[in-house]
Every structure is written in structure tokens, then in C-alpha cells.
Predict the structure.
Amino acid sequence: MSSAIDVSTLWKTFLVGDGRVDALRGVSFRLQKGEAAAIVGESGSGKSTLLHILGALDSPSSGSVHIGGFDPFSGTDREVSCFRNSHVGFVFQHNNLLQEFTALENVMMPALILGKKDFDVRTRAQKLIDRVSMSHRAHHFPGQLSGGEQQRIAIARALINDPLLLLADEPSGNLDSVNAAKIHALLLEMNKDFGTTLVVVTHNLSFASTLPRVIEFRDGIIVRDSRSSMNEAEWSV
Amino acid sequence: MKINSSARAVRLIILRYLVSSWMTRRTRTRGAIGVFLPMLGVAVGVAAFVVVLSIMAGFVRNLEDRLLAVDSHVEVVVKDSFGFIPEEASLLKEIREAHAGIVAVSPFQRGDAILQSSARPSTVVLWGIDPVSARLSSQLESKTRNKNLQILTREISPENVQPSEKFPAVFVGNQILFHVNAELGDRLTLVSVTSEEGPAGLAPRQFPVVAADELRTGNPAFDSKLVVASLDFVNHFFGTEGFWAGVQVRVRDPLDLDNVVKALNKKLEPRKLRAKPWTEANQAFVRALRLERWAMKFVMFVVILVACFSITITLVLAVRRKAREMAILRALGLRRKDLGLIFLLHGIGIGLVGVLVGLALSFGILELVKGNFLAFLTGAYSDKPLPVLVNWFDVGFVSIGSVVLAAVASVWPAFEVMRIDVVETISDRGGFA
């Protein structure tokens, strides 16, 4: 099984005033293709920073990151943007959608950026919307959707280009427990059905425990990296 | 790595921000602020520019019409202003070819005379023209009732003397006719102001003529002084056969004579002739007109410039408001320069729509002005519609200039959006580097 994510001695340092804050301190881990992992830890432990670096939204101070064998930080803005577009899908905590576009158009957007034909894009977007049970809301604008519905559309959008990696940063952070559970279930379903590597940053430990792998951060280092026994055998290299 | 074109997505986003955002009730208010107000600013600026300058140009043309009702744009005369030019067809050709801006030439004769009716005399300027070439070199024909200079070549029987032989036709200024208490068709007598030796001693030359048409130039200097006749008759009257007093020259742009005059003077120097532009006698007036034209253009352009500042402000606000969306678009794979392009084209789009709306508005207003539908505004000036002359160069200049200004106004917002820090924005920690 090949690596989807290969992180080696990753450091991220922020300069704050005269001082410096090490958000990540020599983090190393690997994730196989199709694997699902929860990143947990206290606020400020470096979870979101890691997620941003994995999605090439931020660059590391030192260390190496390879996504699907590609080093996203070696390319130009054009190459990194293209990498993000075709290899990474994002689901953020809130306000994920573009307000002037319908749910369907929001889902289509990454594929349009990729330069795919409008008809093909529309067909695939419609299928994904059906898949996240949002067909009846396809032509609604984000302002007409509930928080849970918006997150469903964001998940569909993240998958439109069939990415290698699906990154979710507190996807249920703004939702009530019922809707949060639905979103958790949907993410796991998508991971299984599409074989997309899933990395979820969450504070919700019960949701984290449902994922095959849990990586716990504290003060910028990994303090626990556990796999469920069934998955340990499956993912052992 | 294969690089893909995001042009389709960029186009969709720009169109949506420009137009479709008005479609939904929820986004309409934003659309109105983000697009409608700066667009309206440009539209009002463009409309004001076109309307004001078209009406100004109309006024200028009106004034020029009156000043140049009979006079030509340039007169070629002998250098010391006294004496005559020997009649020579090749001279006309030489003048015509001196500069590309010259459109027509025509010889003339001119002198003082007395016009005598049965009631009273009046001192006049007798003007001899070549009816064929003068049609092109001056506006004289349009200032007559019958609009036909060829009448001057005829001899006509007067209506107030019966029975009568035929006499040369002349056109008489309408105020002269009133002054001498004569009517069209009446026999009048042209009397020379100098005397010559005759059988009965010294006596002025007298020629009976018929008032075949009247001149109505709108300029009292002409209408109360001018009598026009054929060149041959006037030469015969003054005894100057074989000579011209000068040559009238008509040019394309009567306010841009410098080059024509220079070219003519250079060419006519050996003949001891000189070109005398109409502006020479009206220099202060012409300078005032030119200054006013440029001042007005400048003021109107400042109006558009201010409107374009509003594009900058609106777009910078839009960048702030849409920062999170822009960060999400970056996360979805748009490049920095795609974001810049969205705002640059957004601004150009606002400018373009503003120009189109402004042009439609201005032509609508000009139609109302022409049809005298705005009489309540112009009543103090005249009971006639305001004169309108659309200068297409000015229209093109303001249209292209406004779009260029809108593009320039969008540069800063475009750079602003390119500076968005995606992580900071998505984390709700600000986001501008």
C-alpha cells in the first residue's frame, strides 16, 4: 500500500512580536491511501496548522511533506494551486460556500477551475449532490440552507475532482449533535465509498474514536498515534 | 504536473458578481452597492461629458455659422492688403493643393458702393463671387431664400417698373432692403463711391440691378451691409476686369487653421500673397472658445475620475467583504493572479456598463434637447431648441478613457485581493498581509 501522506520532521514556527511560537515541532507520520485519521488535541496544539500544511495552504518552516509522492512546496503558485485543486478537498468549520452561487454551482466550482467541460461537471456534481441527499436543495443559495446542509454541500464539493486527500477542519464544530452525527457518518461513508484518504481535525472524541486511526497532538508534537486493532493489521506497512 | 485553465471558472465568477448577483433578493443589496453605484457614477460622468460638450459644440457651431456666414475660413490676399491679384486659374489650383485640410477655393471681388432705391440710399459692401465655386467655399447659398447662387448669373426683369428691360441679379441683406424700403424683385441702382470723367463732367458710375434674393445670415454686420453679385458684374462695376480682390479658402476644421495658414504662406510667398485666417479678426473670441472647450473637457473628465475613485473604494470594500470567499476559492485551486483578474475585470465591467448606460442616457437627453422637450430649462436662452453637435472623436475619447480609468481604478483592489492570507482568513484571524 503506497503513502498518501508522508510527513517527516515537520516544523512550523510563527513569529509573534519579538518572540517565536513553534506550532509544530518535528512531526513525522505517514498515512496510506484510503486511510482515515482523526487529529485530536487541545486548542493551539498544532492540529489546524498541520491540516493547512497538508492542504498546501501554508508552508512548513522545515521538514518535508509529500502528498501522493508530490512535494507541494517545491512548485510555483500555479503548480501548487493546481495541486490543491485536483488532489485535495477541503471542508472547513463554517461558511464554506460561495454566497452568490447555488449549491450545484458551488459543487461544480473546483471542476470548473480544473477546466473540465460544463456538461460533464454538471452531471457529476448532480450525482454527488444526490449522494449527500441534497437533490432537493441543488438550486438553493447557501443562505437558504441550514448549517448541516451547507456542510453536506461542502463535502460534495470537496469530492468533485476525485481528490487523493479530503481534509476536514472541525466539520461539525458549528452543528448540533444530531446534524454533527450525520456529517460524521457522511464523511466516513465517503471515505469508504470513494477511497479518499480522510484527515479530520476534531475536538469531538466520540467521533474521533469511530475513525480507524487517531493522532493526538500536544504542544506541537504527536503524543499518541493509535489504530484500532482491526485497522492496524489492514494498514500495517 | 498538468496545469489546467481556470478561465471558465473566472468568467463565471465575474459574470455572477457583475450581473447575476442582482437576481436573488438576498444578494441584490450587495449587488446594488458593489456594481450599481459606481456604474451609475461612471454613467452620469459620461452622460454629462457627452451632453455638455455636444451642446457646447452646437453653440460654437452656431457662433461660427454667424461669423462665417459669408466670410471664408481663410482669405488669400496681397501681402500689403492693398491692390489686386491678377486673374489666374493656376493660382486657384496651387492654393487648393497647398494643404490636405483645404476643401474648396473661390475668387472674389469686394468694394464699397451705394445702393439706391426710389425711396432712399444705403452704403453697402458689394461682394462679387463666382457662383459655382462659392457654393463650396462659403455658406452663402444656405443663407439665401432660394438657396441658389446661380441666380446671380442671370439678368431679370424688375417687378416694380413696367415695361422694363432685364438687369443683373443681386442678393441684398434683408436689413438693407428694409432700410431702403424695397422688396424682392424691385429694381435698385448701384452707385459707385468714386466719380469718373463723363460727358457731363465728373459723375459716379450707376448700374441698375434687381434684388433677386435676400440674405439672412443672422449676423447684423452682414445683413445690414452686404450686397452680393456675380464676380464679372462686380469687376465691371469697379472697373477691375482681370483682377480679384482675393481668394476664399474653406478648410475642414475652422478652429485648427495654423497648419493650413503656414502651408499657404510658404507656398504663396513668391507671389507676394498671404493667407489671412478668419481668426485674425476674432482672435480673443477664438482663444476664449478654445480655452472653454478644454476647460470643460477637463472638468468633465475630473467628474469621471471621481466616479472611478468610487470603483476603487467599492472594490476594496468588496475585497474585504469577500475575503473569506476569495480564500475559499484559493483553497479550491484558483491562483493568486486569478483572484486579481476577477477584481480587475470586475472593475472594467463596471466601467464598460457605466459607459454604455452613460452613452444611452446622453443620446436620450440630446434627443430631448433637439426636440425642445427641455424648453423649461432653455427658455431663458431661446425659444428654439438648443443647438447640438455630437463630436464622435470626443465620444470615443471619453468612452475608451472611462474604461481605461476603470481598469486603472481596479488595479489596487486587484493587488489587495492577491495579498489575502488564506490561512488567516479561513481561521477568521483577519487575512490581509
About this structure: Residues 25-67 of chain B form the longest helix (43 residues). Residues 7-65+287-426 of chain B form one domain. Chain B has two domains: 7-65+287-426, 72-253.
